Amino acid sequence: xxxxxxxxxxxxxxxxxxxxxxxxxxxxxxxxxxxxxxxxxxxxxxxxxxxxxxxxxxxxxxxxxxxxxxxxxxxxxxxxxxxxxxxxxxxxxxxxxxxxxxxxxxxxxxxxxxxxxxxxxxxxxxxxxxxxxxxxxxxxxxxxxxxxxxxxxxxxxxxxxxxxxxxxxxxxxxxxxxxxxxxxxxxxxxxxxxxxxxxxxxxxxxxxxxxxxxxxxxxxxxxxxxxxxxxxxxxxxxxxxxxxxxxxxxxxxxxxxxxxxxxxxxxxxxxxxxxxxxxxxxxxxxxxxxxxxxxxxxxxxxxxxxxxxxxxxxxxxxxxxxxxxxxxxxxxxxxxxxxxxxxxxxxxxxxxxxxxxxxxxxxxxxxxxxxxxxxxxxxxxxxxxxxxxxxxxxxxxxxxxxxxxxxxxxxxxxxxxxxxxxxxxxxxxxxxxxxxxxxxxxxxxxxxxxxxxxxxxxxxxxxxxxxxxxxxxxxxxxxxxxxx
Length: 484
Ligand code: NDP
Fold this sequence. Notes:
Layout: E1 9-11, E2 14-16, E3 23-28, E4 33-39, H1 43-62, H2 65-81, H3 83-94, H4 98-104, H5 106-119, E5 127-130, E6 133-141, E7 144-148, H6 154-167, E8 171-175, H7 182-193, E9 201-203, H8 208-215, E10 220-226, H9 229-241, E11 245-249, E12 255-258, H10 264-276, E13 288-292, H11 293-308, H12 328-343, E14 347-350, E15 366-369, H13 376-379, E16 386-392, H14 395-403, E17 410-414, H15 418-427, E18 432-435, E19 454-455, H16 462-467, E20 468-475
Parallel strand pairs: 7-8, 7-10, 8-9, 10-11, 12-13, 12-17, 13-16, 15-16, 17-18
Antiparallel strand pairs: 1-2, 3-4, 5-6, 6-20, 11-19, 14-15
Helix pairs in contact: 2-5, 2-7, 3-4, 4-5, 5-6, 6-7, 10-11
The structure holds NADPH dihydro-nicotinamide-adenine-dinucleotide phosphate.
NADPH dihydro-nicotinamide-adenine-dinucleotide phosphate binds at residues 148-152, 175, 177-179, 207-208, 211-212, 215, 226-228, 231, 234-235, 249-251, 283, 381, 383, 409, 449, 454.
């Protein structure tokens, strides 16, 4: 068990175990071997986590914001110092290649801690003059919040939620995906080392029911979920019972539109990054690649050649460009999508099969052409390295087809005509759009979806709205007039 943590949970500043909880194995997707064995949180562990969060939050909220920010900045520095170890653990947890985890996971988590650590002291209210009387507003923390994460970016998701939550005076109880429970325990240790008081960032591991128990607890003021649309619907409904605030970062089927005049290699690079990074397990991926007919054949030729050259291999090898999928179940799901696409008449350009590497859950990077809007491949989220290329003729047509989906997470446009680029993105129904780029999500920019892809925004100043509430204080300066 090469990655066994001290215990399954981290509560009130210390590792906690309760062997009564259902056991579950953590598997390294690169080989299929068991690397750790954990127990799901029992009601006693969940209670301890919520009680300590409630206790710790009051004092934390009373601290000066600049002090809270300082703790986050120290945590960010520790993440950066230990980037190599944390990346190796993230690679074991998720199967993502070290080439990616070394630059994308702890590093983007540290970005979030730095951003919100710096922002903490700038969040103020306003004064509203009323000609004598006046109102002032205070931005207050929400209280005890719950974060629930998906398995594709465990460290980043935990940081994107904990950084604003803690910066603005909340406590967070976090449940990672049961598939990737290890990295967040390390983050909890780092927070304590950085000086965060115990109880403010608790990690409880386990399956869906652990998340469900957290979401319905009376002490919880807000739930922030990163996950699929079906889970989002369930969690949102459960949170609504208690009138809790929510942020929902859910799935997508995002369009990436390539016009005839686009720079060919940049467009191919964008489409590859937007379908093959993290073996395609990225929510904002541009999985419907609409290519204008004039550039289509050249695009497909270049794409096929570059895709076939992707280096698959052991994700612990820094030369590896693509690792396995996160689990055997995910691999089966993706392979079933491939078979379905073939049966529905899509043309397989390259890939399309399981790849034999170290008995891991590897899949060849796959491209389908001649995909039409009605095919399952163009409608459902696959969450694997499978790109669907669709043809289009003109601008109005592609905008209508790009928007004809229940999702609205992201969209991209490649063109040399910037007037057209702005005109098109203005009409695309998506929370994030890229022009001549794809899948860049800096902490400075708001991130989140419209339609079924979610509600609320993470990152940027927009997160202030979602991790605080505003209190209005009316101040009377004269005698009170009453009609009685
Ligand atoms: P799931 O929706 O299956 O799970 C997400 C989390 O919710 C997991 O921790 C899961 O626990 C937990 N959960 C499941 N049921 C409940 C419940 N009833 N109450 C509370 N919590 C519950 O997503 P995946 O982990 O499979 O991740 C993939 C999905 O996440 C994709 O759809 C992807 O698009 C989306 N995603 C969205 C992002 C965004 O920012 N918009 C970013 C990354 C991914 P457990 O795993 O233990 O069952």
